[in-house]
Amino acid sequence: MDLGLKGRVAIVAAASKGLGRAVAAELGREGAQVAICARNAADLERAASSIRQATGNAIFWQALDVTDAARVQQFVDAVEKRFGRVDICVTNAGGPPAKTFLEISLEEWRAAVELTLLSAVYFAREVLPRMRKNKWGRLVTITSMAVKQPIDGLLLSNSIRAAVTGLARTLANEFGKDGITVNNVCPGYTLTERLDELAEKQARDASVPREKIFERWTSQIPLGRLARPEEFAALVTFLVSERASYINGTSITVDGGWVRSLL
Length: 263
Ligand code: NAP
Hints:
This protein is α/β, with parallel strands linked by helices. The protein has eight helices and seven strands. NADP nicotinamide-adenine-dinucleotide phosphate is lined by residues 14-20, 38-40, 43, 65-67, 92-95, 115, 142, 144, 187, 189-190, 192-195.
């Protein structure tokens, strides 16, 4: 299937590692011109050079914090200057701290809203007017399976990602007539550094070896294994393609069947 991504310009936020990096690499393989950001420049440079080597395509990168609206604006401006336009944007950020209600300070609540919700707003504000001018665009928000079934111990994620889902669904309504689709993709347990950190924390809290945590997660998944980042990236790549032209306003899980709901 030709996804029609050759020459499309794609921004992938928070993409030096993990899910974001896998999405950037897959888009590069499909012939898109890709721009990535994250805070650590050395990690970004490594990611960009490995994607460049694998795909032969130029990768544009800038080190920035996605909670800084002014830096997000400068980044999107720079991508447009470099590649001529912006067709695709995948929003992403690090995960908020894994804590229960009484452990979370008000400062942590505010920081998590900045990281998880407002970072997506900052990118959407920059890219949607540009896509509207071109009468074509794809916006994908990365959230979590927690938007369909809350995960114990991840209160900030369970609460604030629901707001991102509401944002994406409403943007889908507002921008559909401009040829822009907006969808939300919800990863399940996927083998990245974030998952290692969560396993370490849960193992410490429960005084068990981290392998026990991985076993517990795996036992809850009908497919009986954790996901590889590439399996998540495959769905995002399809959703931002020409071929997904009538998929709009959805939240799709890539969780091996972990969420037990019917829809
Ligand atoms: P990861 O492996 O820890 O990678 C996170 C990426 O985001 C890194 O490139 C990191 O680079 C960048 N980043 C973090 N904070 C940033 C910030 N403030 N500004 C710019 N870049 C930032 O995480 P992941 O597993 O790919 O997860 C991505 C998102 O999906 C997270 O929100 C996570 O909670 C969520 N999620 C993951 C899973 C899973 O199983 N992996 C499941 C459900 C949901 P720098 O540190 O250099 O900035």
